């Protein structure tokens, strides 16, 4: 029986991971949420977790009340996440918080030698150099949860990494595929949250609508698989059946297919290398009939272009586009800016700031703060 801790257990990935954990009888050591104390307490009771961490200090009292007399250790804030990431006796920690707040606990878990199932892509975008270097030094495994990166990881199994020629990163295209830039000016929050294939948290759903998500994934793939930007081709594949593919030197292309259900990549990361029954539907190709492929529209979806430029520039630039995007998406969801402003704000940091090298966590945090402050100025105007 494997022992698991989850950062972000109340979210879309976290709740699906608990379904997988239930099916395969994982022992749950620790769970965490941002402010949803009621759901967190219910999960802690159901799975018998020993630790519960709530990030927001305003929700601590509710969590204490919900768990009073249970003997569960209650933690709070970043210190709490780091304490969970430091616990002994955990086989794997799933990081499924949203945003680059997940970077520090990832580094903490690596320093303790704990393997990580990583859904939190902002961690790799902002601090990927630090994460991958530390993981290699400590011999810690990072198992990708993002469906595309799980697909790439699966396609690489049993093949020589040195013979990997290129990666085909598939994209659903989001709800605004085929739309002109002008027609996106009045997009509402509700329209941006209506993803055609996947049901996910709000932030990643907006990222999917702007194609920022594909830009973040482009950077994530470079970090995880140590390839150059030129080795990745983004292909829009509306049906989300092929989750990504790899091409080897001999011209063979190997793809991973499945229904669009995150439980499959979550389970693969948690049970690797086992492939056991998963609580999901099976794929029937004839139900789809046709699979389609096209190039992304990088002019309309400028967030994607900004991410590709940022990783080519390197250093602090990926952290900066990520930080600006986190602020811009929050402002869009709060009705403070329009849909197209997200791309403008993200692109602006590339011209406003110069690239610096990243040597430590402080360098990432500083770049992130500068980008957020700049984005906040643009939002406030
Ligand atoms: P959700 O918004 O559904 O869930 C986020 C989780 O993190 C919740 O438990 C939330 O707690 C917690 N959380 C939010 N903000 C903070 C914070 N500042 N500090 C600590 N905890 C926080 O997101 P998703 O599950 O959709 O996504 C999680 C990550 O996985 C993201 O990085 C996303 O890009 C990535 N991902 C998600 C996919 C999906 O299908 N959902 C697919 C591929 C990748 P609370 O409930 O209290 O707010
Ligand atoms: Mg993805």
Please write the CATH class name of the largest domain: Mainly Alpha
Q: How many DSSP helices?
A: 16
The CATH level-2 architecture of the largest domain is identified as Orthogonal Bundle
Quaternary: single chain
3D structure, described in words:
About 45% of the residues lie in helices and about 15% in strands. The protein is of the alpha/beta class and about 375 residues long. It has 2 domains: about 5-145, 3-Layer(aba) Sandwich (Rossmann fold), CATH 3.40.50; about 150-380, RNA polymerase sigma factor, region 2, helix turn helix motif (Rna Polymerase Sigma Factor, Chain: A). The longest helix has 20 residues, at about 360-380. The chain starts with a strand and ends with a helix. NADPH dihydro-nicotinamide-adenine-dinucleotide phosphate binds near residues 198 and 200.
């Amino acid at each position: 029986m494997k022992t698991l801790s989850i950062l972000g257990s109340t979210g879309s990935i976290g709740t699906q991971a608990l379904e997988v954990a239930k099916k395969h009888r994982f022992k749950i050591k620790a769970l965490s949420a941002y402010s949803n104390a009621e759901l967190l307490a219910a999960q802690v009771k159901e799975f018998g977790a020993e630790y519960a961490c709530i990030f927001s200090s305003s929700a601590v009292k509710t969590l204490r009340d919900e768990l009073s007399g249970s003997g569960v250790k209650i933690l709070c804030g970043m210190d709490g996440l780091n304490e969970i990431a430091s616990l002994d006796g955990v086989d794997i920690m799933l990081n499924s918080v949203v945003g680059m707040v997940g970077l520090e606990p990832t580094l903490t878990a690596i320093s303790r030698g704990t393997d990580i199932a990583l859904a939190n892509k902002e961690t790799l975008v902002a601090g990927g150099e630090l994460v991958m270097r530390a993981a290699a030094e400590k011999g810690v495994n990072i198992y990708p949860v993002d469906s595309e990166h799980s697909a790439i990881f699966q396609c690489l199994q049993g093949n020589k990494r040195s013979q990997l020629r290129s990666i085909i990163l598939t994209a659903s295209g989001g709800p605004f595929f085929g739309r002109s830039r002008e027609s996106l000016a009045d997009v509402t929050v509700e329209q941006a949250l209506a993803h055609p294939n996947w049901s996910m948290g709000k932030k990643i759903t907006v990222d999917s609508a702007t194609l920022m998500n594909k830009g973040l994934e482009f950077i994530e793939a470079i970090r995880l698989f140590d390839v150059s930007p030129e080795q990745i081709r983004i292909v829009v594949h509306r049906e989300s059946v092929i989750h990504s593919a790899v091409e080897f030197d001999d011209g063979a292309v190997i793809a991973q297919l499945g229904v669009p259900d995150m439980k499959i990549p979550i389970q693969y990361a948690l049970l690797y290398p086992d492939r056991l029954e998963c609580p999901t539907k099976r794929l029937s190709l004839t139900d789809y009939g046709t699979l389609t492929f096209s190039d992304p529209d990088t002019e309309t979806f400028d967030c994607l272009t900004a991410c590709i430029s940022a990783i080519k520039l390197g250093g602090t630039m990926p952290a900066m586009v990520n930080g600006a995007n986190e602020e811009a998406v929050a402002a869009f969801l709060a009705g403070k800016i329009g849909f197209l402003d997200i791309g403008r704000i993200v692109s602006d940091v590339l011209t406003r700031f110069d690239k610096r090298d990243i040597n430590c966590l402080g360098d990432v945090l500083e770049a992130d703060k500068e980008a957020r402050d700049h984005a906040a100025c643009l939002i406030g105007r």
